[in-house]
Amino acid sequence: MSQSIAANPDRLLPADPGTRSIARDLLARVQDLPIISPHGHVDAAVIEQNTPFPDPAALLVSPDHYVTRLIHANGAPLDKLRGGGPTAPGSREIWRTFVDAWPLFEGTASGYWLRNQFDSVFNLGADLGEMSADASYDAIAAKLVEPGFRPRQLFKDFNIEVLATTDDPLDNLASHKAIAEDPTFNGRVLPTFRPDAYLNIAHPTWSANVDRLIETAGDGANGYAGYITALENRRRYFVEHGAVSADHGVATPATLKLDRAEAERIFELARAGKATAEDRNTFEAHMMYQMGRMSVEDGLVMTIHPGSFRNHHTPTFDAFGADTGHDIPFATNYTEAIRPLLQDFGTAKDFHLVLFTLDETVFSRELAPLAGFYPSVYLGAPWWFLDAPDAMLRFRSAVTETAGFSRSSGFIDDTRAFCSIPARHDASRRIEASFLARLVAEHRVSEDRAHEIIVDTVDSSPRRVFKL
Q1: CA-based Rg of the chain, rounded to a whole angstrom?
Q2: Which NCBIfam families match (predicted)?
Q3: What DSSP line would sit under 359-404, residue for residue?
Q4: From the candidate CATH numbers 1.10.2020.10, 2.60.40.10, 1.10.760.10, 1.10.10.60, the one assigned to the domain spanning 53-149
Q5: Which of 122, 136, 259, 446 has the largest count of CB atoms under 10 Å?
Q6: How do strand 301-305 and strand 353-355 relate by DSSP bridges?
Q7: For residue 86, what pLDDT is reported?
Q8: pLDDT tens sequence across 48-73
Q9: The pTM is what?
Q10: Closest CA relative to residue 327, chosen from 310, 307, 305, 344
Q11: Residue 230 phi/psi, 5° resolution?
């Protein structure tokens, strides 16, 4: 069997030998820096309890919609890729379906990450396509039962310094508290306030969520007043438990400042089940404004992730639920949508607003100019469909000439797949080295400055932007 291309030290670096040599030196400068992961979806309980990872398919295939969506697009029903039910296929059968589909992943970001994991995390020693499905399954399964392959040891081996999770506003954060108080654990696992299901009236459990929120943290107040008070109180609870940011997954980045009477009117309509679609959009935009106001007051970094048409295929959602591969990006308008928030808070002291997009066209047209003026605005890293090598290079090319390097958030892996974290950060560092190497080769940036910039981009920027 031949060595996997994931072991090639020049992967993702420029093809031109001279530029590649510069990139190698830049990469060496940051390759061993600790991983700062200020936004992701790993469950804190996995770290707290040091839970062994499940079988290969349950770890690497079934929960990863990046993986299952492409296999599904090529003819495999989703029920052949998901375990757990009484009639579901077994783990080994799912893995065989995945290995049969492995050639489909050539050239994709998922293929790159997975190949990197197979080589550097699981030590397969050969490309997956050159092994039988059962041989690769057995090799990975054997690693998963090793005592040194538990989450806490991998946290250390991956050189993770900070890992942020994404959490419901009413989560008691017991796992985060236990980790923070454990003297044997040296990393930081931080909660993130994610209130989408409490702000979006269209969410199927919004009313029930609001009931629980007001009852838990409303300080005895009812209605809209109790609702706002409860959100403020829960944000403070998160801050007390180490949170540095509040994240918002919204359809659009619309913001709107309503007077209190109008906000109360729509809130009560929604509670009675009488809000229109226009009411729902108006209220969510108002609440995004309120989240900005609260961030100015409590210091939580505000991050916005808009632009995805969630659950595009209703039959798949009905059968398998959310996050099963059929969320599709759409065009996003930031300049007008975010203006009400920036009018009042764009220059507020210590307010940090990190803007993400799935619409590449806004990088140079809207986001870089916004970040190039407002002290509060930072450019979120390429995300979801855009956290791929070529897309990350396009991002750097699109924003740097207007906003420079200092207005970027640093890399955001945004992953649920714990074992993919080092692969994703490694890819980002290689792309940053490649981009800077081209600027050096073109005599646009000195090599000394490029070495300073890449350290700032990889390490200092996420610490600065997320107040770490």
Answers
A1: 23
A2: PRK02925.1
A3: -THHIIIIIHHHHTT-TTEEEPPP-GGG-SHHHHHHHHHHHHHHHT
A4: 1.10.2020.10
A5: 136
A6: parallel
A7: 66
A8: 999 999 999 999 999 899 999 999 99
A9: 0.96
A10: 310
A11: -65, -40
